[in-house]
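tool=predict chain=A
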Amino acid sequence: MCKIKTVLKYLLLALELGFLEGSRFRCDYMSTNVGWFKYHEVPLNFHDAYLQCKYEGAMLASPSTAEIKSVMMELMCYASAFSFSISILTGIHSTFAKGQFHSIDGIPLAQIYHEWAPFEPDNKNNAESCIASNYKGKLSDVSCDEPRPFICHKKHINIDPNDCGTTDPDYRYDKRTNKCYKLHNKPKRFAPAFFTCSAEGGHLAIINSEEELKVIHELHALYPPNKIAGHYDKNSAFLGFYYEEDVADWTTIHGETLEEAGFAKFQEGQPSNSTTGEYCGAVYRDSFFNDVSCHKRFAFICEKSPHYPEICDSENLERQANYTRICKHNFEDKGKSSPGKTNNPVY
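tool=predict ok
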C-alpha cells in the first residue's frame, strides 16, 4: 500500500512539473508552483485594479488558499519594509449583493480560511464592500473606491503566447509594420480606451505611414458595423492622438506632432470640432483622420510590440522575484476542515 502511495505521489509530481514546464507568461510576473503573480505598487480602486489584472491576462488575487496567501504576503514584504500600514486590495468583494463576499473566481468568503484585523469587519457607513489584507494577512472591509496597491494572479495554463507575445487571440501580427494590432469592438471613452491598451502591454495605435493606415483599414474591415456593440458611431475608431491646447496642435500620446510621427492626413473638412469639444483623434474605417469627442464612446485600436512584455518560461522564473525578500510568511491551510472559521463574524 505504501509503495502504491509513493508511486502515485511521484506520478502526480511528474505531471505537475510537466505542466509547469509548458507554462509561459509575462516576465514582469513572478512564477510559483501556484501560478504567476505581480505586485502593483501604484494604487487603484477595486474596479480599475480588477480591469488592470484582467487586461494583463490575469485576475485580481485573493488569499483563497494557504499557498496563494503565502505568495501574496511575500510580495507585500518589500512594500511593508517602508510602511507597515500598507494594505492591499484583494479580489474578495460584495459588489453584487451587500455582505455576500466572493472572490473574483467565485469562491465564497465562508470557504476561505481568514482572520480579521482588530475591530473588523465594521462596514463603516454601510459603504465597505471590498476586502483588503495587511502585511500579516489579516483582513479588513474597506471602500471599493479607495485606491490601494494590489496583486494580480494567473494560474498555470498550457497555452503558449502567440506571435504578439500574448494569449489574447485578437491581437494580430502584421509583418509590414512588425507590430501587433487589436480592434476593441466594445466602445469606450478615450481615457478608458487608453487604460485598456496600456494594461494589455500596448498603447492606442499611432499611424506612422500610409502603409500602416492600410493595415488599420484592413483590420477595421474585419469588424463591420454589425460586429461593434451598442448604438454608437461605428465608422470611426479612437487612435493615440489628441488636440493639445497649450501648443494648439494635434499631438500623439507619445508627445510628437502628427507630422513628426509620420502621418497627418485628416478627412476632407476635418478637423471640424463640429460638436464643440472634439479634442480626441480617430480614424474613419475607410478614410483618414477625424476629430471626435473624448467623452463619447467609440471602438478603438491598440498597437503593441511583439516583444513586449517579454515572455518567460515558468521553470526559469519559479520562485524568483524582482524584489528583495525582507520577511517570509508560511500559512497553514487551517480552513480545510472548517473553512468558515474566523476570529470575527461576517456581518
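The helical segments are 2-21, 46-55, 66-80, 190-199, 210-221, 258-261, 314-317. The mean pLDDT is 84.
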